[in-house]
Amino acid sequence: MVVGVIGIGKIGLALINSFLRSLKKEEIIASDKSKERCRLAEELGISVYENNSHIAKKADIVWIAVKPQEAIDVLEEISPFITEKKIIVSVIAGLKISKIISVLKKNAKVIRVMPNLPLLVNEGAIAVCKGTEASEEDINQVVSLLSTMGKVIIVEENKMDAITGLSGSGPAYVSLFIEAMVEAGVRLGLKREDALILSAQTVMGTAKMVLLGKHPAILREEVTSPAGTTAEGMFVLERWGVRAAIMEAIYAAYEKSKRLGDEG
């Protein structure tokens, strides 16, 4: 099996690094129009090309990790070389499977992936859905390749906009919360670097407890003692509508994702 990656940006490079854990170097090829990005991939020991068509010809699974505004041109470029045996995997935000198939002008086996930025440190939240031509075996093959990059779930495509708003945009929301915690720590006299470590570790540790089975509401109750310091802090968060603001932010991102998909 040969895996090809078109687009060697942050996500594309992360994919290549992940694939190197389970595949041989000669089983991975990549392409990008940027000579600098090609050089970064070459340093990993894989074959790199500036011609996207070469990837479409040689790869059994073609991963498309280009920017949304470049997607249509890339799909049109590789279309003549896509056969019914190849799997096309898109990590392009907002680009629907039906649109990909219409541009390719054939009933291709298309799988859509919605990752988020923490996949760069193998802690991604990754959603996967398949088109009608792709089989369960195809999607399981893709999930297996993604499994070293974080948690992977399989969904229907109509859930992808919700996932974009929740986990796709989620790192920005969590970063804002961490940033606010850090600034509060500094205001209270902590060194900035100490406040950053304490804040980030608190978020990471809490998330790990939740993933191990502790419901967030139960965890919150366990930390919140009657008439204690946490209770005072929680009262302020509720008074300022932080819970509702988070929910509204995710919904707004979902709506934006839907609009972008409709425009595409």
Topology summary:
Blueprint lengths: L2 E4 L3 H10 L8 E4 L3 H8 L4 E3 L2 H7 L2 E4 L3 H11 L8 E4 L6 H8 L4 E6 L9 E7 L5 H11 L3 E5 L5 H9 L1 H18 L4 H20 L4 H8 L5 H11 L2 H22 L1
List keywords for this structure.
alpha/beta; 264 residues; 2 domains; eight-stranded mixed beta sheet; ProC C-terminal domain-like fold; elongated; Rossmann fold
The global form is: elongated
Percent strand equals 5-15%
As a whole number of angstroms, the C-alpha radius of gyration is: 21 Å
Q: What is the CATH C level class of the largest domain, in words?
A: Alpha Beta
Order of helices and strands: EHEHEHEHEHEEHEHHHHHH
CATH architecture descriptor text of the largest domain: 3-Layer(aba) Sandwich
Count of folded domains: 2
Could you tell me how far the N terminus lies from the C terminus, measured between alpha carbons in angstroms? 32 Å
Describe the model:
With 264 residues, the chain is an alpha/beta fold. It has 2 domains: 3-156, 3-Layer(aba) Sandwich (Rossmann fold), CATH 3.40.50.720; 170-263, ProC C-terminal domain-like fold, CATH 1.10.3730. Helices cover 54% and strands 14% of the residues. It has an 8-stranded mixed β-sheet, with helices on both faces. Helix 7 (160-168) packs across helix 12 and helix 8 (170-187) crosses helix 9 (192-211). The mean pLDDT is 95.
Give the structure's gist in a few sentences.
By secondary structure, this protein is α/β, with parallel strands linked by helices. The protein has helices at residues 10-19, 35-42, 52-58, 68-78, 97-104, 136-146, 160-168, 170-187, 192-211, 216-223, 229-239, 242-263; strands at 3-6, 28-31, 47-49, 61-64, 87-90, 109-114, 124-130, 150-154. It is 54% helix and 14% strand.
